[in-house]
Amino acid sequence: MPESFCQLHGRATFGPTTLANCSYSGNVFVATLRNTGLLTSRHQVAGAAPLAVFPTPTMAGTIATLRLPTAAIAALPVTMRDALGHVAARATMPACCQELTLPTAGLTPGLYQVEAGLSHAQMPLLL
Question: What's the predicted TM-score (pTM) here?
Answer without folding.
Answer: 0.62
